[in-house]
Amino acid sequence: MTDAIAPYISATGRSKELWNHDAGGALGGIQLVLKDCLGDDDYTDTLLVVALSGGPDSLALAAGLLRAASRRVPAGNLVALTVDHEWRAESASEAAAAAKCARDLGYAQAKVLRAQIPETGAGPEGSAREMRWRLMTRAALSIARERKLKSIHFFTGHTLDDQAETVLLRLGRGASLLALSAMWPVDMLDSTSGLPRREEPLENSVKNDEDVLVWISRPLLGVRRETTHEACRQAGLIPAHDPTNELESEAKTAAGEALPRVAIRQRVLPELRRALGQDPAPALARLAEQAYSDEMYLQVEAAEVLDKVFMDEATWDVGQPLRLDFSGIGKARIVPRPILRRVMYRAGRWAGMRAGDVTMEHLESVTDLVHDWHGQGPLDLPGVQVSRENGQIVFRKTGN
């Protein structure tokens, strides 16, 4: 075993034995979750991609998915992708080891993608995430098009504990119901940015004309982190240890503080456990699940309203003024504010509104153009101006 693969045990011996029968235990439980996630769909024309970091969560996912997909998914349609952000001197050898481990397990392809993290306003964690998904989506599209496949389905190893951490991160930043829903079980990704469509600039997704559709599933959101660790032990896999997940890591924010997720994992959640006398993670994950369910209902209702009030939808194009006419649905005030806010948000995004800079106050002020109209003038929002003209709500893209 060379230094490059020293952090891992390849898929021989104990690991190979698991492929000849139901694994049982932690790995068996993960396999059942993944079988349920795959359902009865036909994956003949789908590329299944594991986002493999080399940590215990993604390794357990990779092992479980391969077992769950056996006899159902063409072998050539199962691949693993690893991104080396070059944060640490050891990252190259760890990424190579992760890819080799995937190949040893039985993945048709396992590639390492390398890229340094650009300086963006998203911070080191957010910038790394954006670059990682852009690279992985691009690589997966190349493989899918080469094999003439119609869709790509990414799988990530995010666990219940990751979900709980995400809820706390969103709470600290001023959460909406959408934000509290945290990581969704399934998202559609933009084929250019690799970001969920709910996060991307809408000019990239108003017209869905991609030749290959890209999806992402997070099947382990109901699985505890300790279960993925046990699954790796059961499968004979030794995951890499990433020191950037430690408080004393050299990876810091611009202010020199620990990365937010690391601080929540190692400081906030343990303190909450002590203060409450119980583990808060399951309750936080349930909150995300409930918020997701409620948000989906409100989004569906908002989409139906928008479909009725969007003037010239068939001929409208990005960059043009976007007009909403509520006269066709009776009194607009009968539309509940939570739904109307989502109508305005979606319309604003189509018109060019910048999601990251929009506040609840912005959305309430736009909703007041319908619910509390008393002659107020045009509203300047991030990227758009919104006004009421002849009873219609008009969104115009601006440079502000």
From TrEMBL:
HAMAP family: tRNA_Ile_lys_synt. Its EC number is 6.3.4.19. PANTHER family: TRNA(ILE)-LYSIDINE SYNTHASE-RELATED (PTHR43033). GO terms for cellular component: cytoplasm. Residues 48-247 form the tRNA(Ile)-lysidine/2-thiocytidine synthase N-terminal domain. This is tRNA(Ile)-lysidine synthase. InterPro entries: Rossmann-like_a/b/a_fold (IPR014729), TilS/TtcA_N (IPR011063), tRNA_Ile_lys_synt (IPR012094), tRNA_Ile_lys_synt_N (IPR012795). CDD domains: TilS_N (cd01992).
